[in-house]
Design brief:
Elements: E1 2-7, H1 11-24, E2 28-33, H2 38-47, E3 52-55, H3 61-72, E4 76-80, H4 84-87, H5 95-111, E5 114-117, H6 120-126, E6 136-137, H7 144-148, E7 162-167, H8 173-192, E8 196-201, H9 209-215, E9 223-227, H10 232-237, E10 241-244, H11 253-260, E11 265-268, H12 273-277, E12 282-284, H13 288-300, H14 302-317, H15 319-336, H16 346-354
Parallel strand pairs: 1-2, 1-3, 3-4, 4-5, 5-6, 7-8, 7-10, 8-9, 10-11, 11-12
Helix pairs in contact: 1-15, 8-13, 11-14
Amino acid sequence: MNRVALLFANRTFGNCLARAVETTIDDYAVDVFSGVPVRHRVSLVRRGEYDLLVADEPIGNGPLASVLARALDVPFALVLRGWADLTNAHGEHGWLRDRSIAARTRWSTRVADALFVLSDVTRERLADRYPVERARTVGRPIPVSRYASNASDPARSRRDERVALTVTNLRYEGKFDGVRTILDGLKSLFERDDSLRYRIAGAGRYLPALPEHVAEYPYGERVDVLGWREDVPDLLSAADLFVYVSYLDSISTAVLEAQAAGLPVVAGDAVGVPTAVGNAGLLCDPTTAGVTDGVGRVLEDDSLRKRLAEQSRTKTAGYNVHAAREYVAVWNAVIDDHGTREEPNQAIISATAGRSDADDPTELVP
């Protein structure tokens, strides 16, 4: 039995990966440590007799896991969920914070026995700054049953309205700009379809600007700005299609969740979004004209809408199993072939051992 410890900042990701592996692979037991104080993480890992340690970010858990792996003589694997925070692509970090992130990321990526990325574009965006050429692209397990259990038939007729839905993270300008692109693309569709309604769910620093934008929008009375919502499965089950444009995504979990709910998906062909869409959705140009064309085709073609909905259900039915096997294939090789690594940097070890729980990142770019 191989025992794996996931030191994950993203609890949902960790729990879904652990569940997918344990239900798919007979000889694996996976524990998740998320939101646990550093000293408790250290104690639990040291007592757990693990064969592999895995972290999902290189800033806090990455250095910690690498040091523990060295001390316990077990391999260490690292998942890089995105690039924006690691390259300061959004410009949110000051110079000192950016340098600290870069130093920790270089250390974690250099000493890891295995590297994973969630999309090829993530590897490409990180390659100028970090040694990630060997990283393996893998899936990002999601709680499929949470969304599938509420799924309804999105192709059904509605007497009063047809709902297009976007769920996004409005912390990032690149995602806020995607919503504005969708709004621009829907204008002509609103004009010719009185039953069309658009709902936007999500929170973040750009949320206050969204109602202001919608207030000036010519069809603002048919646009609902919902903010943060806990009931995303219910929102998905009440929608007729999911539309998504982003200019800053490693892989869109929102797209994966919409597919799990059995919705037809129309998404902009940019950054890591096509990786999430896979073979179950309609990719469009990430432009006003692209959104108009893509959403218009799905709304006007019943057979296309039904086919995309079925593709979504089929894809997500086996998505987590496939992802689990991708991870385990690498884990097996790393555990079987665990070799020597260069001596760890003592300054980083000291900084990691002395840091507070407040230094732990909670969410990098998904």
